[in-house]
């Protein structure tokens, strides 16, 4: 979660800007939908993650438009976007940058820092689980602190800064599971499934002709920052906070959950609150409701829960646990 101090905000001005920004993001969502066909739920979750100031892990088989989604988001939202293709031979300096020794014409030598691709507003970590755990962990400080430390010096990253990482299912050959600490840094995990028949037909027609849709910029980075600031001031009803606490605490190991190896910490509750605000904003509401929490339980908490071997051998799944909690919110 972003721990940077929030700038002050004028309440009257915030109320005046809320509708305008909500309309702007509605237009942006429609523009993204012209390129990413039939994945409205995925688009909404990606926008929720960015509006909430967090990062997202996009999981799906090859060919389901994961990379295309990230590129389109960067274009439509007006964000400086860079891509890192994660491979087994990637090292941390390929991500963060490094100091190089340079010699001037006078013969003086000095170190100069060359920024890595992490110095951007929207970082696409493509196939992040194909790199070694050591290289994956290079993003931990950047995702949490919005800075990187190289050669003993801390260097701030641009604002806004978001990581949208794509991942192939871990059952595929040549992949490494992400460390638990890094999974917890992702606000949401967004699972992409195969498109419906009608949507797949539309994809085939739209992407194989001469007039393939090209996304256009609808917003600027400053609009995203302003919306993020507004959302930190959105009130959250006590009933919604209580429901989030019950959901998070019911997914932790204990006598009532003997099959769990680990569960969500306080960061899971923070993710639900900030994401519920963002979802309400996209729906044109100024207050999050229980329906927002229910819709976000799986994306916000699913990757923060791990079942033990015995529970998995019995056929239990994290999705079933979360569905049970979700039914209690309705």
TrEMBL record:
One function term, GO molecular function aspect: ATP hydrolysis activity
Pfam families (UniProt xref): AAA_3, AAA_lid_2
Superkingdom of the source species: Bacteria
Keywords associated with the record: ATP-binding, Nucleotide-binding
SUPFAM superfamilies given in the database record: P-loop containing nucleoside triphosphate hydrolases
Domain AAA+ ATPase, residue spans: 52-196
InterPro entries for the chain: AAA+_ATPase, ATPase_AAA-3, CbbQ/NirQ/NorQ/GpvN, ChlI/MoxR_AAA_lid, P-loop_NTPase
Protein family (similarity comment): Belongs to the MoxR family.
Protein's name in the database: ATPase
Species assigned in the record: Sphingosinicella microcystinivorans
């Amino acid at each position: 979660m972003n721990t940077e101090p929030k700038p002050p905000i004028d309440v009257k001005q915030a109320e005046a800007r809320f509708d305008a920004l909500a309309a702007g993001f509605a237009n942006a969502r429609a523009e993204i939908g012209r390129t990413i066909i039939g994945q409205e739920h995925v688009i909404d979750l990606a926008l929720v993650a960015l509006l909430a100031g967090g990062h997202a892990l996009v999981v799906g088989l090859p060919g389901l438009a994961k990379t295309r989604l990230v590129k389109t988001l960067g274009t439509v939202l007006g964000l400086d976007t860079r891509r890192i293709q994660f491979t087994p031979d990637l090292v941390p300096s390929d991500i963060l940058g490094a100091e190089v020794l340079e010699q001037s014409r006078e013969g003086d030598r000095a170190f100069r820092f060359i920024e890595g691709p992490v110095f951007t507003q929207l970082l696409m970590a493509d196939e992040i689980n194909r790199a070694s755990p050591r290289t994956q962990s290079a993003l931990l400080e950047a995702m949490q602190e919005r800075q990187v430390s190289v050669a003993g010096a801390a260097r701030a990253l641009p604002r806004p800064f978001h990581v949208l990482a794509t991942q192939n299912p871990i059952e595929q050959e040549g992949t490494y599971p992400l460390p638990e600490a890094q999974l917890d840094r992702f606000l949401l995990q967004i699972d992409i499934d195969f498109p419906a028949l009608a949507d797949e037909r539309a994809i085939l027609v739209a992407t194989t002709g001469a007039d393939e849709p090209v996304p256009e910029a609808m917003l600027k980075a400053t609009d995203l920052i302003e919306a993020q600031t507004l959302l930190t001031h959105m009130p959250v009803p006590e009933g919604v906070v209580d429901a989030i606490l019950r959901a998070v605490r019911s997914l932790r190991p204990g006598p009532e959950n003997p099959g769990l190896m680990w569960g969500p910490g306080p960061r899971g509750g923070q993710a639900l609150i900030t994401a519920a605000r963002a979802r309400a904003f996209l729906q044109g509401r100024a207050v999050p409701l229980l329906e927002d929490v229910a819709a976000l339980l799986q994306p916000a908490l699913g990757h923060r829960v791990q079942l033990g071997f015995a529970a998995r051998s019995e056929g239990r799944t994290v999705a079933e646990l979360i569905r049970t909690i979700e039914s209690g919110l309705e």
